[in-house]
């Protein structure tokens, strides 16, 4: 165990305050106008219901794997596989979103300083994925400590943005609020929900956190609270200074362009827009690092329980990291960066998050019924109202995501079904029910050399 409460909290905040707020704010305003701030506020409320469920489950079942580990505890092997398969994909597709967000803001950063960067942005996205995969492959502790430092820096930068912006924001930009109609908030919520995924990544590294039964619930709830407050202030300032039309036209660099109108010039860094672009670069990098950690741990947990090839569930003999799981996750991220448009990436990540959260809330209800005497260091308040509201709200948001995204999601589930059947025939898929917690088998040096 090498991650502290602060480190674990920063994994969640780092994943949430990333490409979502910088890249999707302009797209959300394009859908719902000034009411985009309502979409962010409601998403904060919706995600809190599920965060509470995660906190209780993480304290009661302190295993790596997050939502997959909890579903594995109370459902049959096929259901657990579907949960793990979708959560793994969610983190990987979110990684491509963050990588693309990094690339667009990195290029913008170069333009601000008058140094146009050579080559297409996708090359920088690919480079970011490769770099962070290498870091995570070498050391969990190094990637965790780096996540903490980068996240604290970007919170400070957004704090500067908000401090100056509150003096310049015009509340009149929110009147009228529902310029695109009240129902436009729902598709905006569906698009931006991925910005509230991240706290669940904390649960994927449970076994690597100090005193997890206490620190994991605290880290989950702290990360959600901090993120929601930061989002609301940032969106208020962005709309209040640049206006809904200006933000909608700015697209993926909306926050940086909003900063141009009110932030002063800073020593060394330069203009306010440069500072925000700098913060966006760091934000998307930290979010990408967090999902590299999370995606590999889900694959690791599934491999350890033989719901994916067993080699995914082993630590490397030299580096002490789930190297094969990290590399497998990286492949899907790289492919998504190359072939999937950013809006579709955002919708896919949001849809799979919503579906996974529905199952996690139901897993909490089922575990309470099946094991009422299980030790629970943290318990969801107002049970069962809280998880039921989580299920209902997540279902509602999922229904407002476009049909094409649903087709792609079903396609991934069909691929998963084929993988499950193939492994079942090879007797690689474990039986229903949770496995005993045990130390993962290290990779043989000969195998490690091949990896």
From TrEMBL:
Record key words, sorted: Cell membrane, Membrane, Transmembrane, Transmembrane helix
Residues that span the membrane, as ranges: 6-29, 36-55, 121-138, 150-169, 181-199, 219-239, 273-300, 321-342, 348-365, 377-397, 403-423
Pfam families documented for this protein: AA_permease_2 (PF13520)
UniProt topology in membrane: Multi-pass membrane protein
GO molecular function: transmembrane transporter activity
GO terms for cellular component: plasma membrane
Main subcellular location of this protein, as a coarse class: membrane
Biased composition (Acidic residues): 438-451
Disordered: annotated span: 432-451
Localization: Cell membrane
InterPro entries cross-referenced by the UniProt entry: AA/rel_permease1, APC_superfamily
PANTHER family associated with the record: AMINO ACID TRANSPORTER-RELATED (PTHR42770), INNER MEMBRANE TRANSPORT PROTEIN YBAT (PTHR42770:SF11)
Descriptive protein name: Transporter
Species of provenance: Haloferax prahovense (strain DSM 18310 / JCM 13924 / TL6)
């Amino acid at each position: 165990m090498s991650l502290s409460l602060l480190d674990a909290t920063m994994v969640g905040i780092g994943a949430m305050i990333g490409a979502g707020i910088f890249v999707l704010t302009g797209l959300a305003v394009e859908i719902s106008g000034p009411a985009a701030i309502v979409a962010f506020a409601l998403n904060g409320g919706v995600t809190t219901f599920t965060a509470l469920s995660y906190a209780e489950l993480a304290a009661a079942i302190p295993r790596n794997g997050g939502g997959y580990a909890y579903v594995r505890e109370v459902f049959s092997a096929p259901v657990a596989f579907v949960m793990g398969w979708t959560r793994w994909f969610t983190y990987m597709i979110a990684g491509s979103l963050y990588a693309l967000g990094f690339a667009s803001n990195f290029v913008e950063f170069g333009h601000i300083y008058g140094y146009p960067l050579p080559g297409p942005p996708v090359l920088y996205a690919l480079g970011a994925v490769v770099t962070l995969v290498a870091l995570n492959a070498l050391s969990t502790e190094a990637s965790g400590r780096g996540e903490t430092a980068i996240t604290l820096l970007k919170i400070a930068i957004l704090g500067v943005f908000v401090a100056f912006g509150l003096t310049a924001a015009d509340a009149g930009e929110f009147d009228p609020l529902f310029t695109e109609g009240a129902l436009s908030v729902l598709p905006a919520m569906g698009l931006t929900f991925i910005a509230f995924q991240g706290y669940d990544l904390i649960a994927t590294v449970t076994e690597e956190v100090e005193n997890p039964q206490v620190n994991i619930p605290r880290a989950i709830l702290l990360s959600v609270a901090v993120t929601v407050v930061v989002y609301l202030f940032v969106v208020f300032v962005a709309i209040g200074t640049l206006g809904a039309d200006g933000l909608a036209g700015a697209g993926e660099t909306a926050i940086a362009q909003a900063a141009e109108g009110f932030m002063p010039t800073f020593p060394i860094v330069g203009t306010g827009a440069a500072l925000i672009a700098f913060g966006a670069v760091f934000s998307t990098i930290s979010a990408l690092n967090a999902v590299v950690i999370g995606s590999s741990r889900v694959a690791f947990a599934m491999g350890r329980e033989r719901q994916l090839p067993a080699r995914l569930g082993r630590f490397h003999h030299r580096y002490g990291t789930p190297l094969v799981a990290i590399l497998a996750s990286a492949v899907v991220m790289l492919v998504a960066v190359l072939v999937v448009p950013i809006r579709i990436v955002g919708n896919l990540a949001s849809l799979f998050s919503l579906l996974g959260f529905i199952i996690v809330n139901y897993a909490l209800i089922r575990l309470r019924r099946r094991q009422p005497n299980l030790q629970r260091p943290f318990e969801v308040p107002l049970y069962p109202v809280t998880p039921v509201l989580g299920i209902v709200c997540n279902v509602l948001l999922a229904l407002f995501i476009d049909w094409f995204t649903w087709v792609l999601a079903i396609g991934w589930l069909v691929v998963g079904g084929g993988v499950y059947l193939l492994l079942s025939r090879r007797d690689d898929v474990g039986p229903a029910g949770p496995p005993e917690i045990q130390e993962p088998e290290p990779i043989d040096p000969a195998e490690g050399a091949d990896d």
